[in-house]
Predict the structure.
Amino acid sequence: MEKFKKLISTAVALSLQDVDTDQIIPARFLKATTREGFGDNLFRDWRYNANDEPNSDFILNQSEVGGEILVAGKNFGCGSSREHAAWAIYDYGFKVVISSFFADIFKNNALNNGLLPVQISDEFLLKIFAAIEVDNKTQLEVDLENEQITIIQTRESENFDINPYKKYCLQEGYDDIDFLISKREEIEAFENTISI
Amino acid sequence: MGAKTLFDKIWDTHVVHSIKDGPQVVYIDRHFIHEVTSPQAFAGLKKRGIGVFNTSKTIATADHNVPTKDQHLPIKDALSRHQVNTLINNCDEFGVELYGLGHPYQGIVHVIGPELGITQPGMTIVCGDSHTSTHGAFGNIAFGIGTSEVEQVLATQCVLQRKPKTMKIQVDGKLKQGVVSKDIILYVISQISTSGGTGYFVEFCGSAIESLSMEARMTICNMSIEMGARGGMIAPDETTFEYIKGREFAPNGTDWDKKLAHWKALKTDKDAVFDTEYHFNAVDIEPMITYGTNPGMGIGITESVPAINPTSDPSLTKALDYMDLQGGGQLLGKKIDYVFIGSCTNSRIEDLRMVADLVKGKQKADHVNAMIIPGSKQVEKQAMEEGIDQILAGAGFELRQPGCSACLGMNEDKVPTGKYCVSTSNRNFEGRQGPGARTMLASPLTAAAAAITGHITDVRKMLN
């Protein structure tokens, strides 16, 4: 997993609520047996028309918009547990997803792949959407060390919560699995005490 | 110690290690895997040069990406064939038991676990699939995980998780005629929204829940995830024990007696406090149907679709635009094109019996394509033994072979663009059943009624 410290970037605004993982990556693109390449089909059915032509109305197809931060409405990543959704977002080039609310499984999957989910208030989310609407070159600063997000142009900022352990993992590029493997003896001892 | 919820009791006895201010290492009793979310996890083990921690606790099947016709032949689609073969090879290499295509136990992972007696009370159960919550119907902690977590469980038999908050959902009273467990859960989700349960683990209780069969309880717990909850559970009782007894992997002899004594103690203490509680009355519930593009967008069959204000609710506007429905209008009488009966929500023998009872001696509407996908080989076999296959064929329904099928449209079973499908599955997201497909979630009864009339129908009018 790559280390994450601080990111300053323009952002892509997707102001819809309840974006489910079937939209992020439809099931018919889950047939691969590796983690790479899912970015090509990120938001496939919103990004492309039925004839596979890019849909010019969709935000990812607007050349003047870009960046390593995705900003979305509340309850982002609901539905299927497919980790392919986090892989697709990361593979496309996003390093941070901002929303006022994340679905539980998506949040875990993102954190396990070095994709930082930043949960902020509804009010601050509206401020970000408004700032981007006024100027799509608006830059956001995501500072993991200080757990703070700032709209550079307006200097407005808000703190976000992240579990200290998960913060450490992101900063050091440390996986949960590394931690668990380090506990194998303790797990074996536990297993010997149970009857199921 | 203070009074505890059932959830707390099971969780706390499975914690191996707690990280200060962080997640906990939770021991997993049963791990189910399938072809879609496991290959990258096995690849991770290979990269690290490690094996599976305890092969006796992982069970594999092929369900998400398998054809539902001609399962004895090689899979036609090259990518699907490769994915299923990868599962076969990984299970072989790592020593994991596989109930693959052609095996008498093959089927949808959340159907086979319970029917084989692998799923038992008091356990922790995970699978790389969000509908793992289904197993909670037996009074255990069951939840879906991502592929990195599948790798964690394969490598260490544990996952790192933060303990969720607890929620109680109590449903009391007697269900009205034509109202079944699918209607209960669609009603609950419509009341608390698709994110109302996020961060929580739910215990369902109350007289309406207690009166349900195990299969009906599974339908309720199955859709806990659709309100955002990590899982749902129902305290085990005589109905639970009766269901498990005698199944293939159920305990027997003195082991049964020992387990039973333990299971009987699995209850929330009288004074235990939940973080949140909801109470509903069964008499308020009608046969339900969804009109939108998430499972919280549901109404009673005689109710109207909500009116919309495009400026204040872009998501509802987008949903109704996708569904090509008018805000404020009724769904009754709306012409439909497809009926899909299947999925880990409603593909068990009771679901098939329910459909067969309703359609016996009737004919589906000419313009409707009606597909029934049994949840497992065992369900399929039972349906044949009971003559259900003949009844369904006589009514013009197509009974196919087990798998997830058109619930997620990963194989070739899809609903075409713009077509309406009344589906007994769990998700009505845009494109879920195929690009441009319009899904309306409902119970097997309501779906069967729509297949017969060809339009959205109040099934109560067809019952005597």
Chain B touches chain A through 71 residues (CB under 8 Å). DSSP finds 15 helices and 19 strands in chain B. The mean pLDDT of chain B is 97. Chain B has three domains: 6-161, 165-235+252-284, 288-463.
